[in-house]
Amino acid sequence: MDEKHRCVQLSVNPSxxxxxxxxxxxxxxxxxxxxxxxxxxxxxDDGHGWDAFAHxxxxxxxxxxxxxxxxxxxxxxxxxxxxxxxxxRPVPGSKPGLRLRKKNVQEPMLVTVSVYEGHRKEGFADLVxxxxxxxxxxxxxxxxxxxxxxxxxxTATLFLPPGPGPFPAVMDLWGGGGQLVEYRSALLAxxxxxxxxxxxxxxxxxxxxxxxxxxxxxxxxxxxxxxHPQILGSRIAMMGLSFGxxxxxxxxxxxxxxxxxxxxxxxxxxxxxxxxxxGAMLTSLNEANMRMNEEKQIIWRGLVLPIPTEPSKKVDxxxxxxxxxxxxxxxxxxxxxxxSANDMKEMMERAGNSHLLTVLSYPEAGHLIEPPYTxxxxxxxxxxxxxxxxxxxxxxxxxxxxxxxxxxxxxxxxFFLRVNLFSGARPDGKSLSNL
Length: 435
Fold this sequence. Notes:
Helix content is about 20%, strand content about 25%. By secondary structure, the chain is of the alpha/beta class. The strands form five sheets. It has an eight-stranded mixed beta sheet, sandwiched between helices. The protein has a six-stranded mixed beta sheet with strand order 2-9-8-4-5-7. A three-stranded antiparallel beta sheet has the order 1-3-6, with no helix packed on it. The N and C termini lie far apart (about 50 Å).
């Protein structure tokens, strides 16, 4: 490193922020017209390393502004302010099939952003950076409270926004892998909406009793929120991803207990045997349509195809009485989400309640549509509930398009929830029409 490069400065603003908050990465005092590599490195809760990098050329003043300047190559190209997050990938040499998921939301995601001399593609661990900054990315804003919930046989975690409340709330369900997944709920609470993350497939109580898919379990969660002193009991929504979509739609359409203000369903389907217990969803799939590609990755999208015409094999969408948002990735290789959304739309048009439906459909987006800047993984290892083996599953999606879909759908989903849970007013009392 020559003397000119020793003066290089690097800043990230804000260096401490929420996961869905944009930051500005600025390199200063580099030699004008010099080749530079900006690099991000994260060690996840599982201990695996993830990194991303991009090539830039400093301007006549020796600056690179990642929010305004064009990456000439790396894990992303073009002007991408948040590319160093959404293009994170397992460091070269990692075992295949990794997926980045935050397990401890009470600690930040730590990302080291560095700048290196030259256009580098590998070997970053052996290089000395010109400058580095440690960045904190949080799912929990200051003041958000995390409260484990076990009453009534529930296995759940309640996240309450800062302040006394009362707050509207969302019941938050993930997919067929089970477990208690908290990071989306924590981020919702950081935006003023209480959220109850629910384990409904692998919870200790439900697995012991064998009624892990009973409607009563979700109605118990609903009543818990209804009766909580810091929750607005008449303003409760439900959200499901993947397998959680089927649960959300069924409860919204058929429950006599749950009167949802709205529902959000991501990458899922309404296809299920509604004349049977809810647990039959796990065994009713058409396994003959399961495929495997040349890379030995399982493609499950055919499990609900063709979309049945028989009413007993899918949720009666005409019964829905609350606003519904469907978020669909058109390259979803795990569920036939696009075909399901089209059928749901037709059902609601025939029933006269299509005015309740909002569909966000994204070309080249895959199955795992998550909060903004979550790194896209096209495939990963997956262990289904009730099995003892792990498979490699193809989720689909192209990285850039998928990342765009995550950012756009999250913004629109928050708007949808605020409109329906706050009755047209933001938590700060301002009109939503000005957003």
